[in-house]
Amino acid sequence: MKFSYEGIGAWSATFACDDAEEGQVVKLSAADTAAPCASADAFCGVCISKRGAVCAVQLGGLAQVTYSGTAPAVGQAVLTADGKGGVCTAQSGQTCWVISVDAAAGTCVIKL
User: Which of 5, 56, 76, 97 is geometrically suited to a Cys-Cys bond with 111, CB 3.0 to 4.6 A?
Assistant: First the structure.
């Protein structure tokens, strides 16, 4: 059986956008402005759509993101941005719930 967590508890807000692309984890770079994360940055959400200089950022709920390096373990994990649009495990950062991991695809579902 395949499970889907798409859209569960999702809520988002609109921000001005500094070069963020759909699917990337993002941070706040200025008031009302989202930007791509550099390596080891704390992320606030995931860019779910972009039109011109405006993007929608999912700030809560379950989101699928890419990861690099060692796959995060299911359960609570400390994550930061990997600087490539996804996340990576870290010694310090933000604690997130990891709901599932797809090692073949290099993705995981996290609770924002």
Answer: 97
